[in-house]
Amino acid sequence: MRIPRQAARVAVLDPAGSVFMFRYDNEEVGVHWAMPGGGLDPGETPLEGAGRELREETGWTDIEPDGTVLCLWEHDFTRAGIPVRQHEHVFLAYGPRRDPVGDLSAAHAEDRILRWRWWSPQELSGGTEPLWPPQLPELLAGVRRNGPPGTPFDLRTAVSPLV
């Protein structure tokens, strides 16, 4: 039986359409790239959690998710030895291309974040390492072509390819 977990992430896009991502590597999930985000605190809305996680993981206090939900994603994995089914809201935000700021080493060590980088649309669609969610290149290509979605894309039936 999997424990339900609520989470939120933020797709931060720079003016050229590149997206900011972290590289994770741990024994339970494996190597993958994901956007800033994580589990919601009790009583926190997905939008509040997305903003908090973005600040905690990047040190950026001037970028906030704009409330637009790119997608809803539900996936299974193991976290701290416990099988979970994580339901994520992935929000959009826009900002300048830059590195995280401040001393984030403790937060990154706790989350097993090894490094970060900005992925251009071409790099994202041609990459070989696993992405969370795996459909991210197509989702962001749609945003570049058509603007933010009026209705979030629903990826809630996906099972992580890393399980």
From TrEMBL:
Cofactor: Mg(2+)
Pfam families on file: NUDIX
Domain Nudix hydrolase: 3-141
Top-level taxonomic group: Bacteria
InterPro entries: Nudix_hydrolase (IPR020476), NUDIX_hydrolase-like_dom_sf (IPR015797), NUDIX_hydrolase_CS (IPR020084), NUDIX_hydrolase_dom (IPR000086)
Regions annotated as coiled coil: none
Gene3D superfamilies: Nucleoside Triphosphate Pyrophosphohydrolase
Similarity remark: Belongs to the Nudix hydrolase family.
PANTHER family listed in its UniProt record: GDP-MANNOSE MANNOSYL HYDROLASE (PTHR43046)
Protein name as annotated: NUDIX domain-containing protein
